[in-house]
Amino acid sequence: MTRSKHDGSRTTPEGEPGDILGAFDGFQMQWRLFERAPAMIAVHAGPEHRYIYSNPTHDRAVDHRPLIGRTLREAMPELDGQGVFERFDAAFRSGEPEERSAFRVTLARTEDGAAEPRWFEQVIQPWTRDDGAMGGVMTFATDITVQVEARRIAEERRAELEFALEAGRFIGTWDWNVRDDRIKVDARFARLFGVPPEDTEDGLPVARFLAGIHEADRDRVAAAIARALETGAPYHEDYRVCDASGENRWVTARGRCFRSLDGKPMRFPGVVADITEQIEARTRVAASEAALRQSEERRSRAMSAGRVGTFEFYPEENRVVWDPMTVEIFGFDKGENISLADVRAVIEPEDRAAWEADLQAALDPAGPGVHRVELRITRRQDGEVRWVEGRGQTTFEDGRATAMLGTLRDITERRRYEEQLRLLNRELRHRVKNLFGVIQGLILTSAKGAADLAEFVPALRARIDALAAAHLIGVADEQLAPVSLPDILDAVMKPYRGENSGMTADGPDLALPPRLVTPLGLVLHELATNAVKHGAWSVPHGLIAVEWSVSNAGNLPGLELAWQETLPEARAPGDAGGPGFGGRLIDASLTQVRGRIRREWRGDGLLVRLSVPLAQQVAA
Predict the structure, then answer these.
(1) How many CA atoms lie within 13 A of 370 on its CB side?
(2) Cα separation of 28 and 25, whole Å?
(3) Cis peptide before 573, with omega less than 30 degrees from 0?
(4) Could you give the angle at which helices 276-305 and 145-168 cross, rounded to 10 degrees?
(5) Residue-wise over 259-287: b if at least 16 C-beta within 10 A, else e?
(6) CA–CA separation, 341 and 208 (whole Å)
(7) Would you call 69 helix, strand, or coil by DSSP?
(8) What is the 3-state secondary structure (H, E, C) of 269-332?
C-alpha cells in the first residue's frame, strides 16, 4: 500500500479513502504547498485514522515506514500509552481541533527498532465530507527536538557557568610591569595562552602573550590595551586564544592601568575567565531562535500564498487585532483602526444576520465556542465582491468569553469553481435532454437529401461525429493554449448545417484566450441549437452570417461578434434565445467573462450582438 508519487494521487484499499482524498485534488495550488511544506502534514480517514496522505517531511520524520492504507495504530504502534491516539480520537469525536505545543513522544527507528525521544508541536484538524459527516482528521506537526535540546543545553551551561563564576569567577590572573615590559601570570593564565607555566616564573614580554591571541582578534586587543595605557580607562575585551592543546578558547579579560606619580603607566594587573561554553551556548540559542523565526516566516509565507489571515477578538474590550493579510482581504487601508462595525459594513446585507448569529453563538459559554461562517464581502478599496471563510475558537474564563482567535480565508476562487461545476452540470443535463431532438433533426435532414441508404448512413455518421466534436469544445475544462475563433465556429456549426442551409463567417483569424473558449463555445452552441429549432436553419435555404472584429473601447481590446439569421420568408417574431434555460445559459456564460449581449428580432430573422473583453481585468 504505497503512494504513487507526491502529486495528490494515491492507491488505497478498495477505493475507500481514495474517494475522500479526491475532495482535495481540486486545489492543486494548496496541494503543492503541502508537498513542499517544512511542516509534517498527514491526512487520516475514518475513526480508525487510516492514512490517505502524508507529505515528504512527514515521511522523513517516521523513517519512510509504510503508511498509506494503514491505520495510525498499525503504522506507529509504539505511540500506544503516550496519549497520541487519544488526542486523535477526541478530535474525531468532537469535530474540534486539538492543539499541543512542545510535547514529547518516543518513536521507534525503523532500521534497528531503538526508541528515540522526539519533541513536536501539533495541530489535529478534523475535516468533513460533502454530506457534512465527519470524514477524518488532518495533522500539521513540527519537529522541535533540536530547538528543545539546544535550549536545555544552554540552560545547563548557563547554570554551570553561573555556579563557576559565583565560586571563583576569574580563573587566570596577570600583573604587567609596564616600564620593564615583564608580565607575570599564574599557571591557569599561561595554559590558556599556550605558554608553558615554567617559562613565566621571571615574567615574559607582553608580546609573547599577544602572539597567543587569535589573529582575527589580535589587532583589536592590542588597540584596546593601548587605549587603556593612554587614558587610564578600565580595560574589558572578549577574544579568542589558542591554548596549550592547540584548541581555540574564548576568554573575557578585565584590567586597569595604574600610573606613577609622574603620570606614566606603571602596573597593569588583570584577570581572565574562560567563557567558551557560554559563547557556544549563546550561539546555539541564537541558532535555535533563528530557526524558529525562519519556521514562522515560512508559515507566514504559506498562509499568505493561500490568502489566509488571522485575527484576535477580545469581547470584554470590544477590541479586534487584525494581521496585514486580513486587512488586505477586507480591502481596508493599512494602519486603519478597524472595528467590528467596520467589518459588518462590508459584509453583504443578505449575509449579515447569519454572521451575527454565528458570532454570538460562538461567544456563548454554554456552547463549544466555535465560530465558522462563509459569507460575501464588498472590499472597501475597490468595491469587489469576494467570498471569505471565517473560523475562530473562543476562550472562556469563569463563564466569560475572554478571547477569540481565528483565521480569515479568501475562498472566492473555490466558490466560483463550485458555481462553474453546477452550471456545467445543468448544461450537460440540458444537452442530454435536447440531444435526441437534435439527432432526430439531423436524421430527417440527412434523409431528405439522401437518394438511398448507402448515401444516408455516412452522411448521418459524419454529422453526428461533428456534433460530438462541437460538444467536446463546449465542455473542455483543461484548455491550455489559445484556440482560433474560426475553428470554434467550424466545430460548433458543422453538425447543424443542412444541405439547403448556409452560413458565412467573416473576421480576422483571432486566437481566443483559454478562459473564453468554453463560455463562447457554449453561447455559439445555444445560438445554433436555437436556429435549428426556431430560426434560420429550421427551414430550407436559411442563412446565418457571423461577423466579428476587435475593438479597443476603454483602452481594452474586446471581441465584437454579430450573429445575423436570414429567413427565406419573413415571419412573426420568434424565440430570440431567452428566457428559457438556453437563454439563461447564454447570459450566465457571458457574465462569467464580463461580456454583454443584445438580441433583436427583425422581419427576416434574429440579430444577436456579443461584446466580450479579450484582456482579463485585474483589480487594483
Answers:
(1) 8
(2) 6
(3) no
(4) 150
(5) eeeeeebeebebbbbbbbbbbebeebbee
(6) 75
(7) coil
(8) EEEEEECHHHHHHHHHHHHHHHHHHHHHHHHHHHHHHCCEEEEEEECCCCEEEECHHHHHHHCC
How many C-beta atoms surround the C-beta of residue 165 within 10 A?
14
Buried b (16+ CB within 10 A) or exposed e, 507-546: beebebeeebbbbbbbbbbbbbbbbbbbbbbbeeebbbbb
- Chain position carrying cell 489559445: 482
Cα distance between residue 403 and residue 400, in whole Å: 9
- Rounded CA separation 584/580 (Å): 6
Reported pTM: 0.34
Do the Cβ atoms of 248 and 240 come closer than 8 Å?
yes
Q: Give 411's contacts (C-beta < 8 A, 6+ positions apart).
A: 374, 387, 388, 389
In the chain, the amino acid numbered 137 is: V
Other Cβ atoms within 10 Å of 501 Cβ, number: 19
Beta-carbon neighbour count of residue 431 at 10 Å?
18
* Grid coordinates given for 554: 476603454
Cβ-proximal residues to 131 (8 Å cutoff; 6+ apart), any chain: none
Decide the pairing of beta strands 502-506 and 543-551.
parallel
CB 347 within 8 A of CB 377: yes
Cell 462569467 appears where?
A: 592
Taking the C-alpha atoms of residue 216 and residue 239, their distance in angstroms, rounded to an integer, is 9
> pLDDT tens for residues 10-57?
434 344 444 444 544 444 666 777 888 888 999 999 999 999 999 999
- In this prediction, residue 156 has a pLDDT band, given cuts at 50, 70 and 90, of low
Pairing, β 115-128 against β 134-143 = antiparallel
Residue 146 forms beta bridges with which residues?
Answer: none
The Cβ of residue 84 has, within 10 Å, a number of other Cβ atoms equal to 21
pLDDT in tens, 159-185: 554 555 444 445 788 899 999 999 999
pLDDT tens, position by position, 530-577: 888 788 888 888 899 999 999 886 677 899 999 999 998 877 665 544
Q: How far apart are CA 362 and CA 404, in angstroms?
A: 9
Using the structure block, give the residue that is written with the C-alpha cell 517516521: 62
599: which residues sit within 8 A by CB, 6+ positions away? 576, 577, 578, 606, 607, 608
Helix (H) or strand (E) holding 90: helix 84-94
Cα dihedral 23→24→25→30 (10° resolution): 160
Residues 6+ apart with CB under 8 A from 38: 57, 142, 295, 298
CA distance 473 to 479: 9
Q: Do 617 and 547 form a contact (C-beta atoms < 8 A)?
A: no
Give me 558's grid cell. 474586446
* SS (HEC) of 515-582: HHHHHHHHHHHHHHHHHHHCCHHHCCCCEEEEEEEEECHHHCCEEEEEEEEECCCCCCCCCCCCCCHH
Residue 126 has phi, psi (to 5 degrees) of -65, 150
Across-strand partners of 254? 236, 271
With left for phi above 0 and alpha for psi between -120 and 50, is residue 586 left, alpha or beta? alpha
Question: What are the cell numbers at 300?
Answer: 507566514
Residue (of 607, 605, 584, 586) closest to 595 by Cα position: 586
H/E/C letters for each residue in 463-494? HHHHHHHHHHHHHCCCCCCCEEHHHHHHHHHC
